[in-house]
Design brief:
Layout: H1 2-12, E1 16-21, H2 26-32, E2 39-43, H3 54-62, E3 68-71, H4 77-86, E4 90-93, H5 99-109, H6 131-141, E5 143-148, H7 151-155, H8 157-161, E6 168-171, H9 173-179, H10 189-204, E7 208-213, H11 219-225, E8 229-234, H12 235-255
Parallel strand pairs: 1-2, 1-8, 2-3, 3-4, 4-5, 5-6, 6-7, 7-8
Length: 257
């Protein structure tokens, strides 16, 4: 239920904010699930969280009704179907650079005739007890989000955005900056123009768009462009920020007198 509502909310263009999970431990998942974020983005690309880790993560997040999107390490069917068979509410696929790659990603996430996902959603179907119902609804109830992270992807935006079954395009600002020969972390005009192009392409084909933001203060600017799916911060950031905030307050009280 939470997953279906999550996918529909993405498609609606209603603003949502999620946080990244990069620490591979169920206690982190269970804690993040109580943050009142709109969703968690579990990172299987740049964190040590392979799809089989979802076997412990998802029961912990589902306890609190927290939707989980899983970012696969690469655009490969075995990674996508594994995440969905575990019960993830959606997938994010990195480095999608062409219409052909977009078709491959969607096909891996959809049952025939829309795709080539094989039957076997062991946990997602409650160990096959609800398998017919799950398969009937899966193609519409699971979110498919594709990352735009290179110049090549920008050149192929129409082909990617027009692929049936894509729910959102998601800018990867760090890798996109690197593809421009720039150091990540600065919202240079060229990067902002690229974000606008992604938002415009998504709007043209009736899908959503989003980005990972480095500062909450940047959200209004991106929202004005038309983006609606956002992530900010990670478990690592939250731990560091919380600890540093306590240390700063302590030192302010006792070392400034």
């Amino acid at each position: 239920m939470a997953g279906h509502a999550f996918a529909e909310t993405i498609r609606s263009g209603k603003p949502q904010i999620g946080g990244w999970m990069q620490i591979p431990h169920v206690m982190v998942a269970e804690t993040l699930a109580q943050t009142n974020l709109d969703f968690l983005l579990v990172d299987g690309e740049h964190s040590p969280i392979p799809p089989n880790s979802l076997l412990e993560i998802l029961p912990a997040t589902e306890r609190y009704g927290m939707p989980v999107m899983y970012r696969v390490a690469w655009n490969r069917i075995e990674l996508i179907k594994a995440a969905l068979d575990h019960g993830a509410n959606g997938i994010m696929v990195p480095m999608v650079n062409s219409g052909t790659e977009a078709i491959d990603a969607v096909s891996s996430a959809k049952y025939p005739p829309a795709g080539k996902r094989g039957s076997g959603a062991w946990r997602a179907s409650n160990y096959y007890q609800n398998d017919p119902e799950y398969r009937k609804n899966a193609n519409s109830s699971l979110a498919v989000v594709l990352q735009i992270e290179t110049r090549e992807a920008l050149n192929n935006l129409d082909d990617i955005a027009s692929t049936p079954g894509v729910d959102a395009l998601f800018v990867g600002p760090a890798d996109l900056a690197l593809s421009f020969g720039m150091e990540p972390g600065r919202l240079a005009p060229e990067l902002m123009d690229a974000c606008q192009a992604v938002a415009d392409a998504a709007k043209k084909y009736g899908i959503a768009s989003g980005i990972d933001v480095a500062s909450i203060d940047d959200l209004p600017r991106f929202r004005q462009m038309g983006l609606s799916l956002f992530t900010y911060g990670s478990d690592l950031d939250f731990v560091l920020q919380g600890g540093r905030s306590v240390a700063k307050d302590f030192h302010h009280v006792f070392l400034t007198k």
